[in-house]
């Protein structure tokens, strides 16, 4: 009988402590969220430096807790994204961000924010569904065959 009383008291204290800690958790929205190019976010990725990357239906955003940088495609500038519909992210061993779109892969050099296109006949203009970089540096790419 005494053993069950101790268990009940311990359980009661445990539940009480959980409620105290639950009251301390706070969730706050990201400021500057209205600066996203689209309300539809398809992917969220955190890189090695801790930056948060948002893939939307109208471009990519990098959030650093202070400001939002936006990257989009432009028909008049071939040095930008090939397509604004972002499908996935990965980071290679050189610290470059690989950006999958509905029209191929873009490689963003995070040191100078230059974007180049993955120049492979098999990948160009493909709808990229997923990417991952293995520990040996190999890049695995999943596409949607049309």
Automatic annotation (TrEMBL):
Pfam families xrefs: Reg_prop (PF07494)
Signal peptide: none
Protein name: Sensor histidine kinase TodS
InterPro entries: Reg_prop (IPR011110), WD40/YVTN_repeat-like_dom_sf (IPR015943)
């Amino acid at each position: 009988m005494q053993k069950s009383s101790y268990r009940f008291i311990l359980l009661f204290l445990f539940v009480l402590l959980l409620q105290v800690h639950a009251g301390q958790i706070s969730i706050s929205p990201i400021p500057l969220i209205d600066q996203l190019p689209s309300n539809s976010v398809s992917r969220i990725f955190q890189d090695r430096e801790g930056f948060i990357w948002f893939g939307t239906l109208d471009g990519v955003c990098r959030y650093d807790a202070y400001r939002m940088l936006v990257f989009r495609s432009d028909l008049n500038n071939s040095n930008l994204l090939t397509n604004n519909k972002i499908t996935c992210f990965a980071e290679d061993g050189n610290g470059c961000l690989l950006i999958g779109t509905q029209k191929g892969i873009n490689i963003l050099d995070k040191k100078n924010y230059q974007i180049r296109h993955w120049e492979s006949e098999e990948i160009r203009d493909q709808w990229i569904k997923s990417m991952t970089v293995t520990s040996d540096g190999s890049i695995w790419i999943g596409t949607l065959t049309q």
